Structure formats: structure tokens, C-alpha cells
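Sequence, please.
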């Protein structure tokens, strides 16, 4: 089994991505981050998903992205609620964490080098998403190009590094159906930007609304 590093937040998308990588025969090394996010409940979900799916290892790295701020997820800024589909689909919301996927992928790249892995999986999506610039195909392609310029394996002519984005062209409903097809219990996953003090999803943030929309559409087809 080929080793692969899989970024795992504990949300629906990243958990589905891990389940897909595992179903494709990769020996998965899950990588999660405690980066000062207000939705730290997702880390418990990530641990449960990783254990249930079966991974070679699961690391949770500590980063202090609150020291940078600039996002509703890493500060006391209010999380937008009850936005319409049109509002969610346009512009960059305050829940965007500056450079987050660039930073996470860089750590994944470092781990991949150590593991002698040539494959990194990330559950970004460019259809039913909140307008984040680091979820676009152009960004992923640029990072992959950089990865093959910046690593020992890349410059020595060994197997190139590949950034896998199996969900990037899927609707949220397609992601839900894919999750069920690969045996993921989506109730284990956690997708909320502003959970209550006891860890319950708010039901009104973009992440909650997109999740509910995807589940409803998946059930209706």
C-alpha cells in the first residue's frame, strides 16, 4: 500500500476525502490541526473518523493562528448566519482563514517527505463552498508545482508529488452520496463554524447550511 498524507479536519468533506483515499488502497497518515479555531469540536470528530476508517497514523499539530487573526474562526469576530445560497456563493466571507490551506499543505508536504510519500489528499471543493480562494483548482495546481520544486524527491527526479482533490468538482449532495458509498458514517463528522458551548452545531452558519443542503438534496435524488 502506498503511503499518503490526508488533511483531516473532522468535517464532512475532509472525512469523505480520507474514506476515498483509504478505499483506493492508500496507507493513510491523517494530519489535523489545533490552530486556535473556535470550532475545536471538529478535532474530536477527526479522531473518531480516523479511528473508524483505519489510518496508519493520526497527528494533531498545534498552531497559534489566533496570533495572526483576520478571521471569524480565529478571533471573536461574529460568524455570519442565515446567509442565502447566493450570498454564500459570492465574495470571500470573514470565515476565511488567511493562508490556512497553504500552511496546512506545507505541513502535509513536510510529513510526506519524511514518510517518503508522493501523495497528499485534501478535501477542497470549488462548487458548494464559501468562496475561499485556497479551495480553487488554480491554487492546488500552483501548490503542486511548487511542491515539486521545493522537495528533495522533486528535484532529484524521483516520483513527483501529487496533490489529490477528489471532491473539488462535486456538489455537496454528491459529496454526501460519495461518503455513503464508501461507508462513512456522516453523523461522526462535524461541520459548524460557531458551535454552542456544549458542542452543538449552530445550524445557521455557512458550513451548517451547506451541509444541510447537501444532505437534503442527496436524500431527494
Amino acid at each position: 500500500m502506498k503511503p499518503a498524507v490526508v488533511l483531516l479536519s473532522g468535517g464532512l468533506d475532509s472525512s469523505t476525502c480520507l474514506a476515498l483515499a483509504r478505499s483506493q488502497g492508500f496507507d493513510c497518515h491523517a494530519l489535523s490541526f489545533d490552530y486556535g479555531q473556535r470550532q475545536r469540536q471538529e478535532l474530536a470528530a477527526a479522531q473518531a473518523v480516523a479511528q473508524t476508517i483505519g489510518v496508519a497514523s493520526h497527528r494533531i499539530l498545534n498552531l497559534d493562528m489566533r496570533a495572526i487573526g483576520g478571521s471569524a474562526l480565529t478571533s471573536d469576530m461574529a460568524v455570519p448566519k442565515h446567509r442565502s445560497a447566493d450570498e454564500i456563493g459570492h465574495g470571500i466571507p470573514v470565515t476565511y482563514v488567511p493562508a490556512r490551506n497553504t500552511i496546512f499543505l506545507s505541513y502535509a508536504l513536510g510529513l510526506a517527505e519524511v514518510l517518503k510519500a508522493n501523495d497528499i489528499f485534501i478535501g477542497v471543493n470549488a462548487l458548494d463552498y464559501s468562496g475561499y480562494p485556497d479551495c480553487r483548482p488554480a491554487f492546488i495546481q500552483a501548490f503542486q508545482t511548487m511542491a515539486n520544486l521545493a522537495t528533495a524527491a522533486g528535484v532529484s527526479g524521483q516520483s513527483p508529488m501529487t496533490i489529490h482533490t477528489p471532491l473539488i468538482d462535486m456538489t455537496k449532495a454528491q459529496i454526501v452520496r460519495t461518503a455513503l458509498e464508501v461507508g462513512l458514517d456522516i453523523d461522526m463528522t462535524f461541520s459548524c463554524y460557531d458551535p454552542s458551548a456544549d458542542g452543538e452545531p449552530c445550524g445557521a452558519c455557512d458550513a451548517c447550511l451547506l451541509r444541510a443542503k447537501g444532505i437534503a438534496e442527496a436524500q431527494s435524488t
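Strands lie at 3-7, 27-34, 57-62, 119-121, 162-164.
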